[in-house]
Amino acid sequence: MKFTNKEKRVWKNRMLGTVATVGLMGTMLTGTGIALADDILGNNGVMNATTTARARVNLPYENAEKLVNTAGTTVVSNNTVIPSDYSFFIQFIKGKTTVETMGNGWEPFVTPSSPNDERAYAISEKNIVKGQTGVRYNHVSVFGKDVDVTMTVDDFTGTKYGDGGIAFNKVSQVGAYENRLQNATFTFQFYQSGTNTPIQLTGFHTFSDIDWGQYIRLAPNTLNSISEILADPTCKLVAQKESDGSLTIADPHNTGSNDFDIDAMFTLLFRDLSEFTVTFGSAGVTWDNPAPENDYSWAWFGNTAVKPARSEAPVPTKTVSDSNETTVTSNTLDSMREGFTYQISQMIPGELPQFFYKNVEMMDTVIPELEITSPIKVTDETGTDRTSWFTNSGKGNQIHLQATAEALQTQAFYGHVYTVTFDTQVREGANLLAYLQEDGKYHFPNQAKTIVDNKEQATGKTDTIVNEIDTTPDKKVLDKEGNEQSLANFEKGDTVQYVVSGTAPYSASGQTFTLEDDFQDVIDQKQELFKLEVEESDGTWKDVTSEGKIVFDESTEKLSWQLADGSILAGKNYRATFGGTLKEDGDYGQFVTEDGKIMIPNVAKQIVGTQEKETPQADVEVPDIDQTPVKSVLDKNGKETELTSGKKGENVSFTVKNTAPYASKGQSVTLSDDLENVLDLQEKEVKVEVKNGDQWEDITSQGTFTNNAEEEIVSWTLADGSVLAGKEYRMTITGTLKKDVDYSAYMDKTGNILIPNIAKETIGTKEKATNQVQVAVQQEKPTLLPATGVRQTKESNVLPVFASASVLSLAGYFFVKGRR
């Protein structure tokens, strides 16, 4: 348009007042044009109209056929309702939509109010490259798919001076301004957001405020893609089919209008459309002179969210979000403790006042096993809090929001998406078995509903999933430093403590929960050492031992801790301590491993309802008996000693004593004794006994006797030493001092005959020798002949003295040896 300087002030107001959003996405109708009018004029969306007629050189469409009479136009009535599937609508979303220029040569946007107006990117017609110059609006949808749209200049008609230009709004609208151009042709292309992949959409587009001889020309490809053209019976616009197959819809009368004038708008319904081409121009504008320096007259090409007929409200949606999933219909929580958020969204189409709704209600019933943990909040698509436009008459887990009567009668209420949000989480201690499905997961359903203009519609269902805890409890033994180990070393008499830790399944709520530990019979379990703790949400541990019942069977060393209802543990980490003392007199032989170690195993159980889970095994290693066998020789009184005396031909008895290691079990055991070749031994003179309690049991017959008569080496062998394992044994060997052998090899420097003796214990391949004992062999006295005369008397006195001295010498040796 061309304005005089006096008119420019009027134009400035008109430009601000008539700006409206180019839109095609009713899925998320924001009615940005409505909102913008409110923001600028503060008049509840009623825009001022410029009513002064404008002089035109010509009005080429003044005699064209009225649009309502044109074939292909649907004339609406009070009963016309636009189906909800025609809901796609482009919008500029403040705080989300971004704008990128395409091509080069961009300049400041010069307006009567600013030499560099921030509202738009501008470009001179001299720098426009047809088919390439334009802008890309990113994220122009909130409800449904995320969509980007490009707006490309395909063609334009300027003046003979070539001083025109185009500017694209970048702060609040999707659309363009034209300056000193007859017209410009734009192609809108829709893309999947963030890509160059075209996307097909179904929706509507309203061209409004067509006045002062302006026209919209729909290209043939656009006409072929639209379903209907809607117009009110009062519509003043005319239509003319062009020779190239396009359709021009124009204002024929050179009169003004505003965004909400139903007689100056028409609406296109389209299905599966990925692009459309439209030309915007002013039929009656001519320029006979170059542009004056201050000619900033810009004509705005836009639309509004309203339509000449009411729209059916789309089906509301229900989504759920958690810490790593956003606005989905099915989500999986990390645990029952994780909170999540429900969203109920209802799009309210942009409507004219005659189509305002009687009621808008949003309702939800949350299952009792969940609890609402935040206030109920309502926002629009820009994130603006609109809670005050609704009242909530629901209680507890019932939500019932109703739009206020005032909001329903306000233009600003329409053309928006309202989303109800609230946080929730699984109620602690709730019995959740009803939600445990065959897949082993908990499924928490939700479905909301809305009532719009007395029509009730349900949302889709959401499914919040939590995997059942199916972990195996762990078991450790505390070593002497208090560290948890799979294996620890202790000795008899030590106190041993085990720790059973795990996470109770959620199914523990409403079911019995039992921890059970059956100690081996070599550990004396102590009931007073038991303790059960549960981890709180702040990471601290709480003693809940008293919450359960302890059942202890001393005869079997089994202790159980039982809860009738495991709710206090459900989904929580727990740790239980069991303890006892290693018995001094326990039968450790049953725990000897193949490599000869004593390993006492322990396994506990977690029982939920009837489902049992065993812990891994924890082991306590106890050192084996490692004693050296002791050998004794019996004196004439039967007393065990290391030295005794005997005469040739007399019997001498030896004993070998020890406590066999538990490693004897499964291994061969041999007791052997080298009696030298001066002792005579028979099989019946060997006896092996094992001590059971206070009694000695003869087990000689269980072994095999071997006697090397030539070397006088005797041995007794058990193929399997189990009968000896961990028990005290003694072997008694009785031999006879031979009379007819030479004892000189055993005579010491003093002339005494001492026979040494050492026995051996061999278990498997491990051999141990006893201490040495000795037998002193008494020597025979020489025969003395009687003497004659005085000499006889003297000699007879000497010989007895010599014999007595010899006996005293041996006795003294015995004394010293015995003390040694």
TrEMBL record:
Protein keywords: Cell wall, Peptidoglycan-anchor, Secreted, Signal
Domain Gram-positive cocci surface proteins LPxTG: 785-820
Annotated InterPro entries: Fim_isopep_form_D2_dom (IPR026466), LPXTG_anchor (IPR019931)
Record bears the keyword Signal: yes
Segments passing through the bilayer: none
Protein name: Gram-positive cocci surface proteins LPxTG domain-containing protein
Source organism: Enterococcus faecium (Streptococcus faecium)
Lineage: Bacteria, Bacillati, Bacillota, Bacilli, Lactobacillales
